[in-house]
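pinging the channel bc i need a second pair of eyes. not urgent but kinda urgent?? the chain im working w is below, pasted from the shared doc
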Amino acid sequence: MSGVYLDFNATAPVRPEAITAMTRALETGGNPSSIHAAGRAARAVVEQAREDVAALIGGPASTVVFTGGGTEANALAVESAVATGSKRLIISAIEHESVVETAKASGAQVELLPVGADGLADLDWLRTRLASWDAADGKPFVALMLANNETGIIQPVAEASEIVRAAEGWLHVDAIQAAGKIALDSRALGADTLTISGHKFGGPQGVGALTFGPRATLVRRQHGGGQERGRRAGTENVAGIAGLGAAAAALRDLETFAAQAALRDLAAACLEAEGAVVIAPDSPRLANTLCVASPGHASDLQVMGLDLMGVMVSAGSACSSGKVKASAVLTAMGLTDLAPYAIRVSGGWATRETDWAAFVAAWSDVHSRHAARRRAPAA
């Protein structure tokens, strides 16, 4: 990938281990549902990947369901809850669109779990709300992501789980941005369902996984064969699953990833010195993620200016068909004035110190030229 790529939260470059595993899987061929030698070889690839994913996220391999990506995995959890009787869903105000839009389309009533200016979910609100839950609304369903894709803020999921469990509810945890960046254990978190997506941590695009606990009942979203133990019909994407598993197996050294924090904080200090505002600097955040606003300098102009200088960042979530709009996440945090001017910078497994330094230099140049144009008298 040419240029400086600092948009890992959108898609991480595919790891060499994943490319090797995918190539071998493609060369192996075979349908994993076939009982002949080629089919058994393909099945072995799928089951090894299932073990590797289970080791990454915690829980037995038998509870790992492969999907066509994070969006499908989230939808499977939300729609399963509705299909099994949940008539009212509590969705945090910073959830990814794949959760929010699925909840809205499910036919259930949707309530937003608010967050504070620090980006953290209001657990007092959740506790009070669940204390007055109407049994006629079925089992409470609460969706709270582990780490936000735009700000990197890490949510108090384990504490939320205690509240939801006391209300005999279902806690869904979107761990798509957290996987490979912080330690994951779905059981310790108390997640009834938890999702990941391969392309966020060095696997291929178009493959994800969901794991579920004993209090969650999955209901298939698509009908056909009995693949994935009847939970997700359709011939498995063997090569994609192999890449997902290989990337998961490579993510055992979290200390290397944690080293990104020092580089991020140094970059943040440089930008702050020129008037930028770092979003929620005191909140627990992923080591790789910097969300920063430059008041008066529109997000899209910053992204385009940086791109022209060979530095790739984003203006928030990458799941809006290329559209740049004010961040719903920052708006939910009460940062409406900053939302139109925020960009997201995110490193990852292939990021070097020189990449962060190049970003700072490019941003300073783009910011200076923008400021000069604003100061110039009108013709």
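so The chain is about 40% helix and 15% strand. and The chain has a mean pLDDT of 94. — does that match what u expected or am i reading it wrong
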